[in-house]
Every structure is written in C-alpha cells, then in structure tokens.
Specification:
Blueprint lengths: L15 H20 L8 E12 L9 E10 L3 E10 L6 E14 L10 H8 L9
Antiparallel strand pairs: 1-4, 2-3, 3-4
C-alpha cells in the first residue's frame, strides 16, 4: 500500500496513529479478498477491541509499504491478527512496525458478541500462525 501525503506529520515521517489505519485497512482488505464477501454486508460485525504497535523504523511519503498478516488466535467470537509493516526498498524490505489487531464479532443490532461468521472463520483458519516449538 502507498503512504499518502497527508500521512506525514510535522517531523517529516508517518505519524504513529496512521499505522493503526494501515493495520485496519490490511485486515479488512484481506478479509474481503479471502472470503470473496463484502464483509460490511454480514449481519455480524468485526469491531476492533484491541490494537498494539511497536515501531522499528521510520516511513514517510512517498514510501510503498507491504503488510504481512497472520492469525495469532482464532477464538469463538474473536480473531487476533499479528501484523508487520515493511518499507519497500530497492534491495530488501525494511521492517517498520509490528503489531496486533483484535476483531470481536458482534450482532449488528444488539452489539452483543456472536460466533465468528463461518465464511470469515474458514478464511482466517488458512493463515493461523504455526505453534512455536517449546
């Protein structure tokens, strides 16, 4: 994804809050592509319950970014994604940030937690992170 002119702050780099927008965009774009569904039309909504971000390097306009995504935890009503943002370079991508992003699925009317929609669960199951050896 491209950085945008408006992403830069007074210090000449992408403002920290913008990384959360990149996470949100990456997760929802992946969900739509992986499910073949416009997730905005599901009766269950994935609302953001928690996010975190750790910065490893700086990015600024007009950098191009690549966002890696995997599922760290697939629960009954929630999914936690691990994300990594890389700045594209002429050689190797440079790690800019890592973070996590948790969707809790709720009924669109009651806003009470519900099971993850099956179409979303099936897609998420394909990118569940492998268990690390003990």
């Amino acid at each position: 994804m491209p950085t945008r002119w408006a992403d830069n702050d007074h210090y000449g780099h992408v403002n920290n809050v913008t990384y959360y927008s990149y996470f949100d965009t990456a997760v929802n774009a992946w969900l739509m592509a992986a499910t073949g569904t416009d997730i905005r039309e599901l009766p269950e909504l994935g609302v953001v319950a928690q996010t975190s971000c750790r910065f490893h390097g700086s990015v600024s306009f007009p950098d191009m970014l690549r966002v890696g995504i995997r599922v760290a935890r697939l629960g009954n009503s929630s999914i936690t994604y691990d994300l990594a943002i890389f700045r594209e370079t002429d050689t190797e991508p440079e790690l800019a940030a890592t973070g996590s992003f948790t969707h809790v699925y709720v009924n669109e009317e009651t806003r009470r937690p519900v099971p993850i929609p099956e179409v979303v669960r099936a897609a998420a199951a394909t990118i569940v992170a492998a268990e690390l050896p003990a």
